[in-house]
Structures are given as structure tokens and as C-alpha cells.
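Quick question about two entries, pasted in order.
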Amino acid sequence: MLTKMGDYSAVRPGTDLSSHARDLLRVHDAVLAGDRPPHRPRPLVERSWSRVLGLGLDPGHANTRDPLPAGDVERLRRASGLAPVAADLLRIAEDAAFLMVITGPDGTILWRAGPVALRRRADVLGFGEGASWTEAAVGTNAIGTALVEAAPVQLFSAEHFEPAQHAWYCCAHPVHDPRTGDLLGIVDVSGPALTLHPAIGVLVETGVRLAEVQLWRHHADRLERLRRSAAHVAGTARGPLLIVDDHGWVAHASGVAVRDRIGAPREGAPSAYPAWDSVLPNACRKAGWCGPRGRTPRSPRRSISPGRRRFSRYAAGATRGAPR
């Protein structure tokens, strides 16, 4: 479901952007100087400024940037849950008049794309790969504030804490793992403040939703590969059988009624399942886990299920380096 623009939009349609930027600057300068502003900032901005001032950041100049080395950025990219969709997201910025960045869940910028001229301006700002773009690092900004508010954030001009960021707008949207709901990172579109268009926010949100759909498809493909790799197990099973991935998502179930996901198995730790009392996972050849197959392991563990049928209590475990 798309977020209504009014829920987080920094600018109403038809607003004179130049005049609005001047008005926001007066509010910014008054509030941060401890004077009475012409009017209060938006509640989201007011909350963020309060947090940032409490952290002791200096509103008078750009705070220190300390980007990660390129090697560390590459390592974080490889480990990122957004790696499978990053290239498709960044294509949105091809031939565009804005920058797109993708961060990790901690606000570190991992990818950036956009026009060369804007990338150069962003470099001066310290807005590049490896930089931490949290409120604690650079003050009120859409990425850092979206992380704190756990919601999409759009900021315009002097709503940013640092004066160096006043020449920009930014629209940030969290991306979540569709399997677990965990935060994977932030997608942000930024550009010159006076070029902000109402459609920008919708563009970012739509891109994020499509990315989450694509991540779910990657998940479904992994389950299908697991299902195929364990076809020999399913074909020879006698009795109830469960085949699940490392996170407990069910690739195959026979002889037992389960939901799409069960508790994630852990090698060497007994797990309870609906059709039997306990399962003790062991290693197997393919990524995934298998429930009792009706044959006795070397050290059998047997018990009676609620259905009064006797099953071997063992499971197959995930190999090292299994895809997530």
C-alpha cells in the first residue's frame, strides 16, 4: 500500500519553492539560535532537531565525515540483503536529475548513482559510499531521520540541520526483508532543492515496493532450488517429511500440516514440530533442513507423536555458506 504524500511530504503541491526555502531558513536560524521562530517547524523536523541538539552536534558547519575504506564498503555490499536488487534500484537514477543512494540498516551509504555533476557536489558534502548518514553523524537528514522514525521521510532545504545541506531535498524510504520484516536499509533520492517535484516521493516508494517484491521472488526461487535439490529425499520418504530453509521457510511438506514457516532449526538443538515430539538436526549435503523420513539414523531418537505413530527423530542440516 502506497503511503499518502501528505503523510510525510515536505512541500505541498503548488508551493513556491524559493519562497518556502527562505521561510524555512528563518525558522531554522531562529530555532537553533534559541529565538522565537516565525512558526514552528514540522513536528517530524522539530523532533529531529531536538534529538540532534541533544547529541551536541554543531549547527553552524558541516560535522566531521569519516567514510569507510573502499574494501570495507565492498564487504558490506556483498553481505547486504539488498545486493540482489541494488542494480535494478540504481537504474532509476540513470539519465535522471537526482542522485539515488542505498544504505545499510545502520545508515552507511553502500551504493550511489546519478549525474556526474551532482555526484561531484555530493562529494563536497561527504555524501558518498562509505559515509555514515545518521542523525548522530550529520544531523537531521532524510536517511538518518527515517532510521529513527522507522518511516519514510522527505526533507526540503533548511529542514536539514547542517547549512551545507540546505541546497538539497531528500526523500528516504526504508526497505524491509519481506521474509522477516527486518530492516535491510534505506533508499534515498536527493537533488537540488529547487527541483523537488511531488512525484519524487511516489517514485522512491514505488521503487522500494518493487524491490521488496523482487526480494520475495528471490526467496521463492531459493525455496524452489532447495525443493529440487531434495527431490531424492522426498521421493524415498516413508512417513512425514518437512524440508525447510535456514530461516524455517517450508519448501516441502508431506504427511504433516504446517504453516509457510516454522521455527528455524539449529544443528544439534532439538526442535518441536506439529506431527512429532522433537527433531534433532544433523548435517546434510544441501542447504536446508529435512524432517523425519521414516528410517533410523545411526543413533536413533524415537518417540510417539500425538497421532500415535512412531517416527525417527532426525533432520538434515544446512551446509556452510548456504545462500540466505
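Here is the second entry:
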Amino acid sequence: MAIADQLTQLNQVKSDIKQALIDKDVDMTDVPFTEYARKIAESGKTYLFKDGVLAPGYSLPSGLYVSNNRIVAKNAGATLWEIDKPIGSGKTVMIKASSPSVSGSGGNEAYLQLQLNGKLSKLEFNSDQRYNGLSIIGLYEANEVKTFGIAFYTYANSMGIEEMWIE
């Protein structure tokens, strides 16, 4: 292969790497090629749900569905989403969730609870509007996780997951 062909091929590989990083939401604006390795090392996010789309191999239980690019409950009450996918050790599961200005009534609340290896992280939304809007929760686990769960307790379609990722 001639040197000109090798340079053309190298430039294409460089463009492919840059696009792959952009697809993972890494800001590549004005990043020189000499900094690509650092950007790759920093880009540890693996999205499970983003822009209304679940990652391949994931599915929602019958009590949940996607509406307006959010995972929401079909009915009021409790819905458990048990995810039977292993997560490597030393990872954090992150969830970005939102709720309209009123999630419940008469002091009631809606909540989302993330469960990893017996650890819990809870995100609450309630009718007095102290905890409404957009919030992010995360839970770190040093050990490998075989399955994890997300519990929704909500007034149907009042609270939803906008993004979910592992980092």
C-alpha cells in the first residue's frame, strides 16, 4: 500500500473514532488527534436508555412504557423493573428522572428507587413541589452486579426516566 493510501486510511480511522466518541456524547469540539486517547479514557458512559430508546437486549416489564422519550408507569401504584443484565465491578448506575410540577396529591409522593446488591438510592417527587423537576441519582457498586432493580411508585405517567446509563 502506498504512503498516500495509508494516510487516507489513517484519516478515515481518525474520523471514525471521533464520530464514535461524539455518538457517546463526548464533546470533541477543537480536540486534536493527540488528545483522542484521553477522551476515550474519559468516555466511560454506556447508555441503557436515551432519547426514548432502550439499549439492545433490554426490555420493559408490562407495567412500564415509553412516552415522550421517558420511561413511565402505565398505572398508579408500584411497578418493579428487574433488569437481569450483569454489570462489571466498580461501576455506577445513573438515572436521570423528571416529574411535572405536581406528582401526587394531598402530600402524597412519587418515587423512583434504584437497587443494587442490597443497596438503595431513592429519588422522591411530591405534591408540595419541593422535589419536582429534573433530578439525577446514582448508585456505585464495587462488586459485580448480576441483576438490579428499579422500583416506580407513581401516579400513572407522572414521573419518568429520561436517561439511564452505567459509568
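Reply: The helical segments are 3-23, 36-42. The chain has a mean pLDDT of 84. Hope that helps.
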